[in-house]
């Protein structure tokens, strides 16, 4: 369902597009007191800017801009989840790193 007016994350993308800036990636960069911290990396005029943001906003923007989502290794090591049946942790990590954000929405559930 498409809203009549742009949502905040859609508005952010429109602003970036208007100024010919692009999200190069987002990063989940820290975890303190059970709170995750993120940065949005934006390229504009040949410069990269790292902007502090909430992880939820960062991920929403990454999904709208087809940008990579990175998680700091120490955060993955401390809080990452290994799915049952996946014995090769390194293979799983590599597969997740190479997965484009839009692929996460292609899951089908049996009714």
Please give a handful of descriptors for the protein shown.
111 residues; alpha+beta; Bifunctional nuclease domain; four-stranded mixed sheet; 4 helices; 4 strands; 29% strand; globular
The DSSP helix count reads: 4
Specify the CATH homologous superfamily: Bifunctional nuclease domain
Query: Judging from the principal axes of the Cα atoms, what is the shape?
Result: globular
Number of domains: 1
Name the helicity range: 25-40%
The low-confidence runs, each spanning 5 or more residues with pLDDT under 50, are none
Q: What fraction of the residues are assigned to beta strands by DSSP?
A: 25-35%
Radius of gyration: 16 Å
The H/E string reads: HEEEHEHH
**Gap from first CA to last CA:** 22 Å
Strand order of the largest sheet: 3-2-1-4
Give structural notes.
The chain is an alpha+beta fold and 111 residues long. The protein has a single domain (8-105), classed as Bifunctional nuclease domain. It has four helices and four strands, in the order αβββαβαα. Helix 1 crosses helix 2 (55-65). The longest helix has 11 residues, at 8-18. The chain starts with 7 loop residues before the first helix and ends in a 14-residue tail after the last helix.
Outline of the structure:
Helix content is 34%, strand content 29%. The protein is α+β, with helices and mostly antiparallel strands.
Give the arrangement of secondary structure elements.
Blueprint: H1 8-18, E1 22-32, E2 35-44, E3 47-53, H2 55-65, E4 68-71, H3 73-79, H4 89-97
Parallel strand pairs: 1-4
Antiparallel strand pairs: 1-2, 2-3
